[in-house]
Amino acid sequence: MDEKLKRMKELTGILNEAAKAYYQESREIMSNFEYDRLYDELTALENAGMLWQRMLQGKTQGLTDGEIDEVCAAMRAVGVPFRSICLSGHRKYPLGCPDMEKQKRGMEIMQKAVRLAARLGIRTIQLAGYDVYYEEGSEQTRADFLKNLRLATEMAAVEGIQMGFETMETPFMDNVKKAMEYVTAVDSPYLGVYPDSGNITNAALLYNDDVAVDLERGKGHIVAVHLKETVPGKYREIPYGTGHVDFDKIIRTSWELGVRRYVAEFWYLEGMDWQAELKKANDFMRKHFQESVGA
Known about the structure:
- Helices cover 52% and strands 8% of the residues.
- It contains ten helices and six strands, in the order αααβαβαβαβααβαβα.
- The strands form two sheets. A four-stranded parallel beta sheet has the order 1-2-3-4.
- Helix 6 links the parallel strand 3 (162-166) and strand 4.
- Helix 4 runs parallel beside helix 5 (139-159).
């Protein structure tokens, strides 16, 4: 039994590392076949009577009713409910992908995300603002993206789930202005914008724009704000306070626009003390909220 538990922990670590490399670092350290083989091994061990609580970023299968109940019980026990989720699967399976099989898979992922959100009481799904990521964009990819976005919004509307575009690091949708073009085209109360503070700061630098003005373009449609640090030209793994994001300005402007939901993203890198980094990020954000809006 101990050997099984040890192997499950080992598999969880390997799969998490592979998912991190793929979704956060845009590189592959194993093939899809190898990933699926290891995932199946982990599942088989669980089915044999061992349940290991795992958090597999990005590549997950549907949860059973029992697992949903466990998650909900855990949220109640610790007093920390899940209220939003970030859907990253559309990088690999984008809604505008020229490959129809990948496009179909992207819509299946969307449907599962909406169902999961409804079952867990999650109110907001953050969408990646990509028509394509690895492929070349075109008028067709943008048209397919909009077509599937309308279908995805209908899925969310049925369950009463709010969706919001994360402003990304690519030119397709790197600021609120571009995201609002699609929000306006779909014209649904269930689709809005979920701006990334670091990404819109980098975009403002590129376009000689102002982040406050950009946020105001989304007035009435900002579902939440993603608070992340960046430096010019770099979008990941920047610790709070070491970049160029004006958090006071972004918090104050969005607060005045009526936003009350914020998600802080901080980076944990190998060798760092995660507990110390968590406290540092918490202290950093609380200080900025107190100074900006007295909250």
